[in-house]
């Protein structure tokens, strides 16, 4: 491999981002029998593929004459990239775009032994076969053309990445908001249970079992409010003024959190919806239920169209 200019490095990066998008989208489209615009960004580029390809080229440069060391360098370099990228994205966005938790010998779901082994072979394939052909094609293109194309694509990718990054941060805030609303509803339910226990309403006590699903939690809260409303009508003197005021205040809080949830679930942003549709395997350790709810919302809107 030759020493490349900054423009050539960027051109190679964009080429492999584009190639990775074609590969990934085609594979998923065949698997799901429908087109899926894969990736973090909305344009036809997957930065993880471009980063991986450039990393393979860089780490293998000192060992071009030794295929074993090229393999080892590829294993270590790609695994480190995958680990750092996975941990950083999860820390920033609260979701994982890939997860190896179901694989043997994995580390926190970000990396696993089988992928590490595969990265080494891919590095050999990349440096010995794929890139040599790509390099010849790029060198055959006039330098001025490569420069103009690279500048134009750079401008496009900067805009796309900026919008995609903002959408991912917005999704993170939505997940946090949905979780906070659920926690507030759980506190409301617990307080209702205390009130119900005090008045010994047997019909409502049977509904005290807990559920991790928000829709079941909301159904339970509304049933408890309904039972208490009936009880107040039948025997208003059973409830002191303070208890009736607290029930009213709890209902008001519940209505606010219910409205918050409806607002969070609307997902008005195109980039937010596209990221969910383009990454169906997206996973969140701490906000799993909220994420699945957003996925269902996107799929329901899609079916209605």
UniProtKB/TrEMBL annotation:
Membrane-crossing residue ranges in chain numbering: 6-23, 44-63, 69-93, 105-125, 137-159
InterPro entries: CmpB_TMEM229
Tree of life domain: Bacteria
Stretches of the chain forming a coiled coil according to its record: 171-198
Keywords of the record: Coiled coil, Membrane, Transmembrane, Transmembrane helix
Name of this chain's protein: ABC transporter permease
Species: Parablautia muri
Taxonomic classification: Bacteria, Bacillati, Bacillota, Clostridia, Lachnospirales
